[in-house]
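Lab channel / #folding
Pinned by the channel admin:
"Please post every new chain as: sequence first, then the structure tokens as a reply. Keep commentary short and put observations after the output so the thread stays searchable."

First post following the new format, from NK:
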Amino acid sequence: MLASLLASGLLWLLLLAPPWTDALGLFLVGAAYVGLGSVAMAAVDTRDPGRDILTVLLLWVVDVGAWVAVDTIGAVATDGLDELGAALCFSVWFGLWIGTPAFVIWHLLALVLRGCRWRRRGPLGAGA
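Reply from TO:
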């Protein structure tokens, strides 16, 4: 699970915020989030499968919050604190509309990668 989450997160980050463009900061924030989130998901999955939904919801909230923070910081850097209220409202909308699909695509891509591995190795591993 960890390998598929890390691989899908890296692939999605390379498509969403290529580090060789002006999006290096976004790429680094995303890489830290993908790394920590992947480890958290893998740890919860191995210890207590019943807590998966809580972990996914928490990671989604953090994902949306990260997008809100990135957009708000960008708006404040551009416009100053004069329009902070309007910038924050837009940032929440932006975080939900960008962060949610990005989160879903990250997990769906990881699921596809796990499915490809499962088909290649079989349901019981390579020895079965």
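NK: The chain has a mean pLDDT of 83.
TO: also worth noting, Residues 120 and 126 are 8 Å apart (CA to CA).
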